[in-house]
């Protein structure tokens, strides 16, 4: 009953710069990841998504690509990549690459050609427009990291469009040659055996063909990113996008069982349209609801209900708790609730994506001004938008730089890395790391969690309760989203606590009423004696 690997499995995002450095230059690399595959196996994840590893001037740390089919030397070589892929596959771990189709680096040969003259054959591969009559940019669109999204180019006397940095010119996806070239990029990696792609900024690929202005955002607050001054109604998410996504999907479908994930920051009702007509689009349009929701039982129950009911028939759900662009969950909800968040992520219906370091309870790191790397922080300083604090090096042990690198790390290691590292947490049965391992191991054996139904039970008094069920296996999950103890009533059938977020060995038996500790989440099993034994075996 296990469906596709990407339905029953758990995805793990690695930010390669920060996972493991193998050559002492202070930046993580492919050989470093390969050295840590035991860790991934022990953790119990099924697929790793690597943020971009391709040739790049690193203005946006790899999201500005100068050659989509070459590995940046800072990460290693194509041979290193092939070896990593082979070793991951021999362990049964899938590899997902980051595909960045919306823009390239301004140093990409395509853009160099495009900007060289108005009649260059690649001119139309990017988005060039004349200035307005007063010399201003062609319209009011804003760049995601601040300022206008248009950059004047002296050589040819036109503006080019960049949704992100000016060093990241947008490709013109209305041009069939661009589409064909980018499909070839996908095939290059598919032929090498990669298992899928996370598509960067997918909702940006198609812009209004008439380049009409975006309307102002009446709810804008000065502490927000400059981009939020306008509603991005014309600059992204246009109806023509669905054909583009379906074409990407068809490229993947020529290979067995590959996965297409879309990065899409849109409200739920828009997000789910990216599954495409008759599910011809992304397998998993990334669901970022948990990154934004107020952290309360009612609020979380509401977004789950809204999301579940918005899914198209057959559309497979997914949940994301953290990524390299958003504040760490442990800082957002507090260290105590980070454990509840772990249980939530790994018990909801659908594919979970876990961000490296969250399994150690990583907090937003303090990055002093002189150590700032992120271009967003540099362009819009002081608003707390910078992404360095969630990208700091993984902490492995108590040695120099927590075992990340013998050299000077590109971002400072977390200040608590002597305490919060894999080695230390692995030896403490009650640590968040061991909680993650228990949850992942249980999930791997529980049909109800991997593929079962979801039913909301209640969200009262700060406790969110739901059931997961598959055939005879029936589980209840009760999450105390408050910092106080709570007594809750559960259907009598749920007699046994399998996992608690707080203690490695919870008191097992309950009868209808359960006392939850502050910030505690539990998984309970119900059912006939024999089913119960199955569930228990699975939890060990
Ligand atoms: C996506 C990436 C982000 C990057 C941006 C531009 O949002 O996740 O890190 O800066 O695209 O490529």
Characterise the protein shown here:
The protein is α/β, with parallel strands linked by helices. The protein folds into three domains: 5-104 and 175-437, TIM Barrel (Alpha-Beta Barrel); 109-161, Alpha-Beta Complex (Oligo-1,6-glucosidase, domain 2), CATH 3.90.400; 452-539, Golgi alpha-mannosidase II (Immunoglobulin-like), CATH 2.60.40.1180. Helix content is 27%, strand content 17%. It has 17 helices and 20 strands. The protein has helices spanning 5-8, 30-35, 37-43, 78-90, 109-116, 176-192, 241-253, 268-271, 289-292, 297-310, 329-333, 335-347, 375-379, 422-426, 432-445, 447-451, 529-539, and strands at residues 11-14, 47-50, 54-55, 67-71, 94-99, 128-129, 150-153, 158-161, 196-199, 259-262, 284-285, 318-320, 351-355, 453-460, 463-470, 473-480, 486-489, 496-500, 513-516, 521-526. The strands form five sheets. Strands 11-10-9-5-2-1-13-12 form an eight-stranded parallel β-sheet. β10 (259-262), α8 (268-271) and β11 form a beta-alpha-beta unit. α6 runs parallel beside α7 and α12 (335-347) packs parallel to α15. It is globular, with a radius of gyration of 24 Å. The mean pLDDT is 96. Bound molecules: alpha-D-glucopyranose. Alpha-D-glucopyranose (GLC) is lined by residues 60, 63, 100, 164, 200-201, 263, 324-325.
